[in-house]
Design a protein that fits this description.
161 residues, mainly beta, Immunoglobulin-like, 2 domains, five-stranded antiparallel sheet, binds copper (II) ion
Length: 161
């Protein structure tokens, strides 16, 4: 039991040593929290770009309603060749996480089917907190293996009355 545990709240509020011992950790914690919630200014938020090695053009279509924290939702992925032809029969694996927090996705999203030529359904997506998330795709298709990374920022819910 820490020795100051028996002291009255009054003696703590007078700024005696036991209280001031907490000041430095609290300051560090505050700084860490501020850094957590701020995505980099130059983050590429484009939802359509070439895959890492340029084999494909990948377009991510988010759900019509902005994904809210802790809500399962689905995206569509449109895969085409650099000249714009839909890429059929691809296998796409999904990974991701929060680079600033060092954790992955809370679920294991799957690309379940090709809903139209070159358009794939990614189900089981969930963001468990606000902030910067990376979505990483590993693509296997006729023109070879490639990867693509997208960034998305989940905003805190709007204040409502
Ligand atoms: Cu996080």
């Amino acid at each position: 039991m820490p020795r100051f545990a028996r002291r009255s709240p009054l003696s703590k509020s007078l700024g005696e040593t036991p209280m001031s011992r907490h000041l430095i950790p609290m300051a560090l914690l505050t700084t860490a929290l501020a850094a957590c919630g701020t995505p980099p200014q130059d983050l590429d938020l484009s939802l359509r770009h070439a895959s890492t090695q340029g084999r494909y053009v990948v377009q991510m279509d988010p759900p019509a309603a902005r994904p809210a924290v802790n809500q399962m939702h689905a995206w569509q992925i449109k895969l085409s060749s650099p000249d714009g032809a839909p890429v059929r029969n691809a296998r796409i694996a999904v990974d991701g996480g929060m680079p600033q927090h060092g954790h992955g996705l809370p679920t294991r999203p799957q690309v379940t089917r090709e809903v139209a030529e070159g358009t794939y359904l990614m189900e089981g997506m969930k963001f468990s907190m606000t902030g910067w998330w990376e979505i990483k795709l590993a693509i296997q298709a006729t023109d070879g293996a490639d990867t693509a990374v997208f960034n998305t920022v989940i905003d805190p819910p709007a204040v409502t009355r």
